[in-house]
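#structure-requests
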Amino acid sequence: MDIKQSILTLSRKAINSLYNQDIEEKLIQIQGTRKEFEGNFTVVVFPLLRYSRKSPEQTANEIGKYLIDNNKHIIKFNVIKGFLNLSIAKQYWISFLDFANNTNDYGIKNANEDSETILVEYSSPNTNKPLHLGHIRNNLLGYSLAQLLKANGYKVYKTNIVNDRGIHICKSMLAWKNWANGETPESANLKGDHLVGKYYVMFDTEYKKEIKKLVAEGKTLEEAKKEAPLICTAQRMLRKWEHGNKKVHELWKNMNSWVYLGFDETYKKLGVDFDKIYYESDTYQVGKSIVLKAMKEGLLEIDEDDSVWANLKDKGLERKLLLRSDGTSVYMTQDLGTAKTRFDDYKFDKHIYVVGNEQDYHFKVLSIVLEKLGYEWHNRLQHMSYGMVELPEGKMKSREGTVVDADDLIAEMENTAKETSMELGKLDDYSENEKQKVFRTIAMGALKYFILKVDLKKNMTFNPKESIDFNGNTGPFIQYTYVRIQSVIRKAKDSGIEITQQLTSSTDISDKEISLIKLIYDYPEIVNEAGINYSPAMIANYVYEIAKEYNQFYHDHYILKENNEAIKQLRLVISQITGKIIKSAMNILGIDVPERM
């Protein structure tokens, strides 16, 4: 039986037997024993004092004695104030190690017919600019969350909504029309998303000039922003687009096609993908039809200027605009349509939006508006909110062209990985193709791990050089640990050593080995808790801990040079299952691990 579950069950029985109190299992807290104390598991006694009506020490001693008397694997205990530290027999850890080593996909659950369906939306780019560092955090969080939920046995579908219409798109289109002279990605030798982004920045530059001129002529800043010829022309272009103007649509399709090719190239570099891509140019129409239907049913308010609003005052919120006075839609309109389209497509049990914390209010309102319009599944929508990512130099601004481009950052990471690897001299016998593959694997491992190890609620500063260090809490350190393990396994096989499927229960085992086996034991629970909390960071920090613990074990113990065959087999099995777990955990994070490095 699972030893932790056994401790839970017996602790509950102990309280019933000793104090005549029947309590729920969830009231019993069990955690790993802190390293400075003897033991493997700790029962937190303080919440149980209301049932024992005795001191923490006396309660812990009584429960400890009960556990020893009723479970042969619990061999001793010690009490530190209100903490009951339990030591588990070495034979249990050996039998557990056998179980883990012989379990396919240890720690991972597979979906079945009864599994819940979860949609994860991430990326959500605008087609007026290339992907940047902020998009990288979004894509990596979204992909990893999808992997994490799959590992917890859910049916998961990865979706993307491409924001391919709206005033921001028209800004790029208008700038290209005015100043491009027919320039294309091919003629400019630029990725399509970079070319379109160039004209988005150009629009903003010229727009600011017009604003400055109007202010000098006596307009207020707000008046100048509204009356500048460029923005007025862009707004007219948007109205033409919504009314199906042929020339505007041809330009829109052409420029978007350039951007899609550029996005696909970047997604491939990042190693992320999608099961289905939705487009705002389709879903906004669904959203408008939802709004128009709700208007007829009297569920919305129409102002004198014909703008359409949802009154949310009964929820303690302001009114929300759904259609502008000229009939054009807003983001909320599109999101209503996207949500309904996806529910019709998947009948999801949950829909998770991976979007930055600046949109917290938006997604709160989206659910409330859907509820107001009668959609019973409105409470299945969840916002996975995360903090912003910055560079040591500060924040980034798209329209001013001061963002860190995703493609440039990936290229910089690959160059840094190359420099670091060549300095270490570990790839001298590799072909050029093999070297390039390893450089990319290290670079992306460094980038992904550095971003995913940070709690998603926190803002973070990304430092490329720190991320690629082969020592410390980094992706390359974990990748190198995996490579070290594979080297041990290969050398064992080359020496004709078969790794056993059944360990000898009487084998001697050190405290360092038990510490590592305990971390192996923790993996399924970590995956489960990380899934509940939508936290790739929990996986990242766990895999660093097990890699660090393995390296200490590796330095303190002989493996292939060990003379005692039973102990050698034990250490090989520990190595083998640790390697499997590192690969599994890194896969959840979307990170590849090389076999050699």
